[in-house]
Amino acid sequence: MFASNTRNLMRSSFLQRCKSTLVVAEHNNEALNPITLNTISAAKKIGGDVTVLVAGTKCGPASEALSKVEGVTKILVAENAAFKGFTSESLTPLIVAAQAQFKYTHILAGASAFGKNVLPRVAAKLDVSPISEVIDIKSEDTFVRTIYAGNAILTLKSKDAVKVITVRGTNFQPAATSGGSGTIEQAAAGDYASSLSEFVSQELTKSDRPELTGAKVIISGGRGLKSGDNFKLLYDLADKFGAAVGASRAAVDAGFVPNDLQIGQTGKIVAPDLYIAVGISGAIQHLAGMKDSKTIVAINKDPEAPIFQVADIGIVADLFKAVPELTGKL
C-alpha cells in the first residue's frame, strides 16, 4: 500500500511539472487585445509554465507589455511578413511548430473572432478535438462550457494529449499587467507564407466609445427601435454614461446598425457592470451573450417580454418616452 501511494504521488508530481500552456496572443502589433489577459488568467488556473506566443510584423511593443504580465514565464516572438493580417493559414503552422518544439500540453486563445478562426485549424492539424468557449477550468483535463445557447452547463473531461481551448474572456479576471518578469525569446524561424490565402486590407470602424467586450456600461437596442435613425436615442443616453452601444441580432438583420454591434450567441459575449436593454424582447440567442452582466435593466412596452425574466430592473414603458426622460435626468 505504501509503495502504491508513493508511486501515485510521484506520478502526480511528474504531471504537475510537465504541464505547460501556450497562449496565442491577440494584438495589433502595438497593443494587446484585453481578452489575451483573461486568457492568461485561465492558463494560470491549469498550472505549470505559461508561455505567450506573439506573432506579427512589428510586435515589439506587445511583447514588452506581455513580459510585465504577472504569471507569464516566457514570450515567444515571431516577426514575419507572412503574419500581416493574422490569417489562420499563416499562424497555424507556427503554432504547430512551437508545440512540436516545446511539447505544450495546452494551447489557449480567447473566444473571439481571432481565436475561433485559428484554434480549430490548429486542433485539426494536431488531430485533437477543440474545446470551445470554456467558462471555468476544474483541472488540467476537466473544463466547463455552456451548451444550448447557455441554457445548460457541460463539464467535460478531455483525453487528448494536447488540449486546444478557446476561453470566454468575460468569465476570467484579466491578469495583472505589472509584477511579471517573463523572458522574451525568438520563435523558431520558418517559411510561414501561405498560398491558400492572402491578406489584402482591412477597414476598421473608428469610434470614441469603449469597445463592446471591455465596456463597463452597455446600452443595447433591439427591433423595438424601428429604425437605425432612432438609435440616436441610445447614443445620447450612452454619452451620459460613457457607455458602449450594442444591438440585438434582430436589429442588425433589419439593417439598423452594423453587425459589429451585435451581442448574442452569434455576436459578441459581454458582461458589463450595467447592461440596459432597450426594445429587446429577450430571445435565447441574445440572452446567451449578455446574461452574465452584473446589473441588467430592461425597457420594453410588453410586460410579457422574456427579457424581464433575467432583468434586475424592469421598466414597462414606451421606449420613445422612457429613454429621452432617462437621458434628461442624468
3D structure, described in words:
- The protein has helices at residues 2-18, 35-46, 60-67, 88-102, 113-126, 232-241, 249-253, 284-290, 319-329, and strands spanning 20-24, 49-56, 74-79, 106-110, 130-139, 142-147, 152-157, 163-167, 183-186, 217-221, 244-247, 274-278, 295-300, 313-316.
- With 330 residues, the chain is α/β, with parallel strands linked by helices.
- The chain folds into 2 domains: 20-186, 3-Layer(aba) Sandwich (Rossmann fold), CATH 3.40.50; 217-329, TPP-binding domain (Rossmann fold).
- The strands form 2 sheets. The chain has a 9-stranded mixed beta sheet with strand order 7-6-5-8-4-1-2-3-9, sandwiched between helices. A 5-stranded parallel beta sheet has the order 11-10-12-13-14.
- The relative contact order is 0.11.
- Residues 1-17 have low confidence and may be disordered.
Residue-averaged pLDDT, rounded?
Answer: 90
Number of helices: 9
Count of DSSP strands = 14
- For CATH, the homologous superfamily of the largest domain is named as HUPs
- Estimate nothing, just give the exact number of structural domains: 2
Q: What's the gyration radius in Å?
A: 22 Å
**N- and C-termini, Cα separation:** 70 Å
In quaternary terms, these chains amount to single chain
Uncertain spans, ≥5 residues at pLDDT below 50? 1-17
Structural class: alpha/beta
Shape: elongated
The ordered string of helix (H) and strand (E) elements is HEHEHEHEHEEEEEEHEHEHEEH
